[in-house]
Design goal:
Helix content: 25-40%
Number of strands: 7
Structural class: alpha+beta
Number of domains: 1
Pfam family, one: Acetyltransf_1
CATH class: Alpha Beta
Number of helices: 4
Strand content: 25-35%
Keywords: Acyltransferase, Transferase
InterPro entries: Acyl_CoA_acyltransferase, Bact_Acetyltransf, GNAT_dom
Protein name: GNAT family N-acetyltransferase
Largest sheet: 7 strands, mixed
GO molecular function, one term: acyltransferase activity, transferring groups other than amino-acyl groups
Distance between the termini: 27 Å
Radius of gyration: 14 Å
Length: 147
């Protein structure tokens, strides 16, 4: 597997992100436009993971505040799940964010993405009150990890 640090302009990231959006249509239902607005942002810190030169997963982060990076667009192609790819992406994103001076991480996910929530909990994330645009959104779970 090969990890590539890039931006959201990367064509492979765009393809994976589009697949993720299709996947989320069923999950987010009527709120999909709301979430799409906040997910389709320009990211300067994006990771794409390749297996045999094929993009199989991605993730990114952006500055939330001076000390906190917000993890965004974590996705592993459905055919590639169960191989530890998401854990690898998350770990590398956190390392990269630390290099950039961040010492805590936040994220938002759907309560329906139970395997994602399990991964985040297993790696030290804890549930927090919804932040920012997610305050009052019932189909949203927010988590944080302090270093």
């Amino acid at each position: 597997m090969k990890l590539v640090r890039t931006t959201s302009d990367n064509p492979d990231f765009k393809k994976l992100s589009a697949l993720f959006d299709e996947y989320l249509v069923d999950i987010d239902g009527d709120e999909r436009d709301f979430f799409a607005f906040y997910n389709n942002v320009q990211l300067e810190h994006v990771l794409v993971i390749y297996e045999n030169e094929i993009a199989v997963g991605c993730g990114g982060f952006k500055k939330f505040d001076e000390h906190t990076a917000e993890i965004k667009r974590m996705f592993v192609h459905p055919d590639q799940r169960g191989k530890g790819i998401a854990s690898l992406i998350l770990s590398e994103l956190e390392s990269w964010a630390k290099e950039e001076g961040f010492n805590s991480f936040i994220l938002e996910t759907s309560p329906k993405l139970t395997s994602a929530i399990a991964l985040y909990k297993k790696t030290g994330y804890q549930l927090i009150p919804n932040y920012g645009q997610y305050i009052g959104v019932e189909n949203s779970i927010c988590m944080k990890k302090e270093n």
